Each structure stands twice: as structure tokens, then as C-alpha cells.
């Protein structure tokens, strides 16, 4: 089973972003590096939810914003290790839409449930597979360091 490691500060930043955008979904990018103990996330970069039609239950990061985040990450010798978003008033489990819109193989997808404006459960899933036809989410161990 794969492991995602992040600091308590990054973990809390992800959860706080979910509360700030409630009742809409938040979204962002996880920057980090690969280490022997798994993906090590150094920063959670908030992004603007570009969905205007259904931001309460869908998210999208504009391509131009994602490119800017990736270029900034490279300047810090980091890479994109994953993405995060919230599920307002729904469980922190991936949906069919989440899977259909996930395309970064080998990356983590962190989902936080925000129930009535307060974060509850946060889970991580690895996008496994090698093609759109065989991709799947696998539960991932999330280790929050102090």
C-alpha cells in the first residue's frame, strides 16, 4: 500500500481550505517529492475552483493556474505529488466523477469531508493504472507528521 506523508501544517491547511469554501468544493495542488518512505508533501497550494455550473459538488483547476503552480514548484525543486478537494456534506470517498476527471497517474488525491461547514474525515487515494481504460483509485495510507 502506498504512503502519503505530510506535515500537520499542510494537513490543517487542506482542511481549513475546505471550511473556507463551504458550501462549495475547494481544490488545490500538493507539492512534494518522492522518498523511500513514500510521497512526501511539502506544501498544499490552494487553487480557484473554476467550475461555475456546479461548484457545490464538482471542481476544476484552470489549466493556466495549474501550469503556474507547476512552474513555481519546479523553481523550488518540487513536483506535483497530487491534488486535494473537499466534499461538502458528502463522505471523503472518491466518486465516479472524481475518477473520470483524474488523469495524473501515480499521484495522490486527497478528499476531505466538510459536514455543515466543519471538516470531519480526510482520506487519500492513489491514482493507479497506466491508461484511461485501466485507471483506478487505491486507498492510500496518510501519515501526518508533527
Characterize the structure shown.
The chain has helices at 8-21, 63-75, 96-100, and strands at residues 3-7, 27-35, 38-47, 79-88, 108-115, 118-128, 136-145. It has 146 residues and is an alpha/beta fold. A 7-stranded mixed β-barrel has the order 1-3-2-4-5-6-7. It contains 3 helices and 7 strands, in the order E-H-E-E-H-E-H-E-E-E.
Features:
146 residues, alpha/beta, 3 helices, 7 strands, 43% strand, globular
Can you lay out the helices and strands and say which pair or pack?
Elements: E1 3-7, H1 8-21, E2 27-35, E3 38-47, H2 63-75, E4 79-88, H3 96-100, E5 108-115, E6 118-128, E7 136-145
Parallel strand pairs: 1-3, 1-7, 4-5
Antiparallel strand pairs: 2-3, 2-4, 5-6, 6-7
**Strand order of the biggest β-sheet:** 1-3-2-4-5-6-7
Rg value: 14 Å
Count of DSSP strands: 7
Order of helices and strands: EHEEHEHEEE
**Which consecutive residue ranges, at least 5 long each, have pLDDT under 50?**
none
User: Main beta sheet, described?
Assistant: 7 strands, mixed, barrel
Amino acid at each position: 500500500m502506498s504512503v502519503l506523508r505530510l506535515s500537520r501544517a499542510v494537513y490543517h491547511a487542506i482542511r481549513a481550505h475546505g471550511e473556507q469554501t463551504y458550501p462549495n468544493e475547494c481544490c488545490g495542488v500538493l507539492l512534494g517529492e518522492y522518498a523511500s518512505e513514500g510521497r512526501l508533501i511539502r506544501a498544499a497550494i490552494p487553487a480557484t475552483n473554476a467550475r461555475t455550473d456546479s461548484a457545490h459538488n464538482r471542481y476544476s483547476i484552470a489549466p493556466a493556474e495549474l501550469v503556474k503552480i507547476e512552474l513555481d514548484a519546479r523553481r523550488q525543486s518540487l513536483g506535483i505529488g497530487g491534488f486535494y478537494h473537499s466534499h461538502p456534506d458528502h463522505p471523503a470517498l472518491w466518486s465516479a466523477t472524481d475518477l473520470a476527471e483524474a488523469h495524473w497517474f501515480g499521484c495522490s488525491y486527497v478528499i476531505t469531508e466538510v459536514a455543515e461547514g466543519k471538516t470531519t474525515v480526510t482520506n487519500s487515494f492513489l491514482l493507479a493504472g497506466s491508461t484511461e481504460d485501466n485507471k483506478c483509485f487505491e486507498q492510500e495510507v496518510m501519515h501526518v507528521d508533527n
